[in-house]
Design goal:
heterodimer; A: about 425 residues; alpha/beta; Rossmann fold; 2 domains; five-stranded parallel β-sheet; globular; B: about 575 residues; alpha+beta; Beta-Lactamase; Helix Hairpins; six-stranded antiparallel β-sheet; rod-shaped
């Protein structure tokens, strides 16, 4: 089945190999930074599996003009300084052509700065802060999965369509991790709610630490805030911990809980099992059960066959990252010319497993942000993907705008 | 004399009143029960009052006993948190690379070592950024770079604390989707000259979260208060002023923790429970009062008849019988009282009878001596005068005198018989023979009065009795019966055995007697006939008693009278029968 998947790339990029390619080109060196241990370690491990899947798919292709990729993966342990030092080492010692990966947005910003300094391409696969494609944007940075701005745009549309109140403003509280990713998510959601003319008021803003283990104080504040909607910006184990503890405070009975960026990550469902409440409004950058296409089903099953578990959305990002590099290098007139590579990346169109039928992920040349569909659903019983017993259903699908949405916000990250 | 009689009546009335008052009002039972009631109610009221006072002050007690200790411990923890940050800041400011950075002036370059150290420190989640500023306050370098501030906040509007070698600016409250923070700054000195400042931009919530242990949202919650101007919640957001319950010492100059009233979720249920307990206490008190009242009524119901009975006995009335169905000792007391009353009545009656008989004996002796002897003399003299009298008319007059003397002598004999009865000489007497003899004696009288006599019963019945007494008993009763039938009637005599005794019934269908008359007929000298002596029935009863028998009278006006006699069997006869 993966042959079919690879075949789709081959069809897109043209079956004919360039003439005169007699000499074997040097392998393209890629240095990926993922947390393989510690907080977020599962994201890194899933990414590593997906990278290997992509490499295997590339090798399996009968098309000879795809470049040889030499991918190195290093464990960042979710540490900023360590990540920067690894990136430095990749650039100076390994002389890599591409940096890739990074889960945390704050680390990604530091690595992105390093990439700019050394004029090395950085293909972001998993982090989602809009800062990287706006204020931090530079010619060497590209991101191949939706960011929080795109998921918040979809979230704002969902709230506008389903939760408007006739008699009073909607009371919305936000709780998210205390770093750029959370700030941007909340800022973007408010901006898009304004754009959608949603009558709302902020009933609370709360910023627990990233990797917090006790949300009691914040849950007390949230339950006392009399909110109609609580939007969460948490991801990973933070969200698992929060949901477990929130159940003891009856938060889900008192307010509609939503998480548009990472809430429906398969990892969350698997970790929570039967503790995952039903009726939550969630989304993620990839779903194991959506879109219901053959490509997505093949990707999910192939990952499961390889890893023994179903993939988190990080896997899809890493898979897309490898393919993006391969496609850019393959189509670049002169792969050693960074301008050519950039031009290919800016015009990138990737048919990815997470794309619904009739749609392909497309790079926005202005922001270097890949534009993908965002699907939002409600949690409901589904034991087809154990150990998770809940998946999303009742889908609301939001196609991306023609270009990455820019907002006139003067805020700078603290 | 009349006046004295009135006083006596009033005294008797007062005495009755005195005796009756305790029964109807505060008798002993009610007093004891009332005492017990107060003994039960006073502790109940005390406990209810103390509990109410305790629950009303529950919040204060909690704070006084437990929370104040935690408050001080939290203040110490926050003080330590600030000290750790100051120490961290001092370590950075004292680095030679930091000094070199500021010395470089306009060419400020952060060395790789300093950059790595600052990056490492900035990875601490409690620190948003580390800033290096010149003497004018211009930020020269921020780590991480992505957390640079565009403009420093105005010093004039933020709280500023100078403490030892550091300066704390803030807190800056959360705003526009960004969390709150505060700045700890330390100058970098060279030769006592300030060449720059190193600052830690601290996560405000990392400090305020230290008060998490103090949160009891339903009762109270902590606020971090800075110079009484800024109030913060435990998650670092702005807090509204509330009633302050307690406050800590300053954990940093100008910074302290206040404990303020919480949502007070417990107040309503606490008040509800408080009122519920008070209601239950009142209900219990009413229940106890009702129970004691019912017990008082019930006990009084048993004791009042006893008291009344005792008063009746005191007044010489032995006829008042009390109900014996009281529980336990009360029933025993009632039964004992009744036995005591009966035995006392019999004792007094017996004593009176003895004294009466003694008086009658003395009187009889006097009559015998003072009347009978002169009558004997008169009778003898009249008899002599009659023999020597020739005049028939006078002889007849002497006969009348003799007859009247004989009648008076008979009356005296009868009285003497009653006053000094002869002791019985018991022997077996055939009832059948006795009945036959009596019938012969009275048949002429009966015939004259149109009375039909019928005798029935067991013919072989033999009594152990004085035959003379038995004959006189039967004669008296049968003559009385004939007298009771002035228009004629039926006199029935029957004898039979019953429960080891011989029973003799003498029944007539004469005029009968009412209850009042029945109570009087046994009294000596009481008679309803003009020529009766009033001693017939008393003597009869006396003879019956003397022969170990009993006499009972049942009578109904215009229906008749039945007199029942019981006597013991003759042993000889009984043995023969058996």
């Amino acid at each position: 089945m993966r042959c079919l998947l690879a075949g789709a790339f081959a069809l897109l990029s043209g079956l004919a190999a360039p003439f005169g390619a007699s000499a074997e080109p040097p392998a393209v060196k890629v240095g990926c930074l993922f947390p393989l241990t510690g907080p977020g370690g599962l994201y890194g491990r899933d990414s590593a599996v997906a990278v290997q899947m992509a490499l295997d798919d590339l090798s399996a292709l009968a098309v000879p003009d795809y470049p040889q990729l030499d991918v190195k993966i290093a464990d960042t342990r979710s540490k900023a300084l360590r990540s920067v030092q690894i990136a430095q080492s990749f650039i100076e010692e390994d002389e890599i052509d591409f940096l890739c990966g990074v889960v945390s947005s704050s680390i990604a910003r530091a690595v992105s700065a390093k990439a700019l300094k050394h004029e090395v391409f950085f293909i972001g696969t998993d982090h989602a802060s809009p800062s990287l494609v706006s204020e931090d944007l530079h010619p060497y940075y590209f991101r191949v999965s939706n960011d929080t701005r795109q998921s918040m745009l979809a979230g704002a549309k969902y709230i506008a369509e389903n939760h408007r109140l006739a008699d009073r403003p909607l009371r919305i509280a936000f709780v998210g991790p205390d770093y750029e990713y959370g700030y941007q998510a909340w800022e973007d959601l408010r901006a898009f709610l304004d754009q959608q003319d949603v009558d709302y008021e902020v009933s609370g803003e709360y910023w627990p630490k990233l990797f917090e283990t006790d949300y009691t104080l914040y849950l007390q504040q949230l339950t006392a805030s009399s909110s109609d909607i609580v939007v969460s910006g948490h991801w990973g184990l933070d969200l698992v911990t929060f949901v477990k503890q929130a159940g003891q405070f009856d938060l889900f009975e008192e307010a509609q809980f939503m998480n548009f960026d990472a809430g429906a990550n398969y990892e969350i469902f698997a970790e929570l099992g039967n503790d995952m409440p039903l009726g939550l409004v969630l989304s993620a950058r990839h779903h194991v059960n959506w879109p219901p296409t053959e490509r997505n089903t093949d990707f999910v099953n192939a990952f499961h066959a390889r890893a023994g578990r179903y993939p988190s959305y990080a896997a899809q990002g890493a898979y897309a990252g490898v393919w993006a590099i391969a496609e850019a290098v393959r189509h670049a007139e002169d792969p050693s010319n960074k301008d050519h590579i950039r031009a290919e990346l800016e015009g990138l169109v990737l048919p990815l497993p997470e794309d619904p039928k009739g749609f392909m992920s497309t790079m926005d040349p202005a922001s270097h942000q890949l534009l993908q569909v965002q699907a939002i659903g409600r949690t409901m019983f589904n034991n087809r993907y154990p150990p998770a017993t809940v998946q999303l259903g009742d889908w609301s699908v939001y196609f991306p705008p023609d270009s990455w949405p820019k907002l006139n916000q003067g805020a700078s990250a603290d | 004399m009349q006046h004295a009689s009135k006083d006596a009546k009033n005294w008797a009335k007062d005495e009755r009143l005195k005796l009756s008052l305790p029964i109807t009002r505060l008798n002993v039972v009610r007093r004891y029960l009332l005492g017990a009631l107060f003994a039960a109610l006073i502790p109940l009221a005390l406990i209810a009052g103390l509990y109410d006072r305790y629950s009303a002050n529950l919040l204060n007690n909690l704070i006084a006993n437990r929370v104040e200790t935690n408050l001080e411990a939290t203040a110490a923890r926050m003080s330590n948190f600030m000290a750790v940050q100051v120490k961290r800041l001092e370590n950075i400011a004292d680095l030679p690379d930091a000094t070199d950075f500021f010395k470089a002036g306009s060419k400020n370059e952060v060395s790789l070592l300093l950059s790595d150290i600052l990056s490492l420190e900035a990875e601490n989640p409690d620190i948003y950024a580390i800033e290096l500023s010149d003497n004018d306050g211009t930020i020269l370098h921020t780590v991480p770079r992505t957390r640079s501030r565009s403009q420093p906040p105005s010093h004039s509007t933020l709280p500023l604390v100078q403490h030892e070698s550091v300066e704390v600016l803030g807190p800056v409250l959360p705003d526009k989707g960004r969390p709150g923070w505060f700045l700890i700054s330390k100058p970098v000195m060279v030769d006592h000259q300030k060449i720059g400042t190193v600052s830690l931009r601290m996560r405000l919530a990392s400090l305020t979260e230290q008060t998490g242990a103090l949160v009891e949202p339903s009762v109270f919650e902590p606020q971090i208060v800075v110079f009484d101007r800024v109030r913060l919640t435990p998650v670092g957001t702005a807090a509204a002023p509330k009633d302050v319950i307690a406050m800590s010492r300053q954990f940093f100059p100008g910074w302290r923790i206040h404990l303020v009233s919480g949502r007070n979720d417990y107040q309503e249920p606490k008040t509800y429970i408080r009122y519920l307990l008070m209601f239950v206490a009142v209900l219990t008190a009413l229940g106890v009062i009702f129970l004691f009242y019912k017990m008082s009524m019930r006990l009084s119901g048993y004791l009042q008849p006893l008291s009344k009975g005792a008063q009746a006995v005191a007044n010489g009335d032995f006829s008042v019988r009390v109900i014996e169905d009281g529980p336990g000792e009360l029933g025993i007391l009632a039964r004992s009282y009744n036995r005591m009353r009966e035995q006392l009545g019999k004792l007094i009656e017996s004593r009176v009878e003895v004294e009466r008989r003694a008086a009658l004996g003395s009187m009889a002796a006097g009559i015998a001596h003072e009347i009978r002897n002169p009558l004997t003399t008169v009778s003898t003299t009249v008899h002599g005068l009659k023999r020597s009298e020739e005049d028939p008319m006078r002889k007849e007059m002497f006969d009348v005198i003799s007859s009247e003397i004989a009648r008076a002598d008979d009356a005296i004999s009868e009285f003497l018989n009653y006053a000094r009865p002869s002791d019985p000489e018991k022997e077996p007497v055939s009832v059948k023979e006795a009945f036959r003899t009596i019938k012969t004696l009275i048949s002429a009288t009966a015939h004259e009065k149109h009375v039909v006599i019928s005798i029935s019963g067991e013919s072989d019945l033999v009594l152990l009795i004085d035959p003379t007494h038995f004959r006189q008993i039967l004669l008296n009763l049968m003559l009385n019966a004939i007298e009771a039938m002035p228009g004629g009637g039926h006199l029935t005599i029957r004898a039979y055995r019953d429960s080891g005794h011989a029973v003799l019934l003498i029944a007539d269908d004469g005029i009968g007697m009412d209850d009042t008359l029945q109570t009087k007929i046994m009294r000596p000298f009481f008679t309803t006939r003009a020529n009766g002596s009033g001693l017939g029935l008393p003597i009869t009863k006396q003879l019956v008693d003397a022969n170990d028998g009993t006499i009972a009278i049942e009578s109904e006006p215009q229906v008749g009278t039945t007199i029942t006699l019981t006597f013991p069997f003759s042993r000889q006869t009984s043995g023969e029968r058996s």
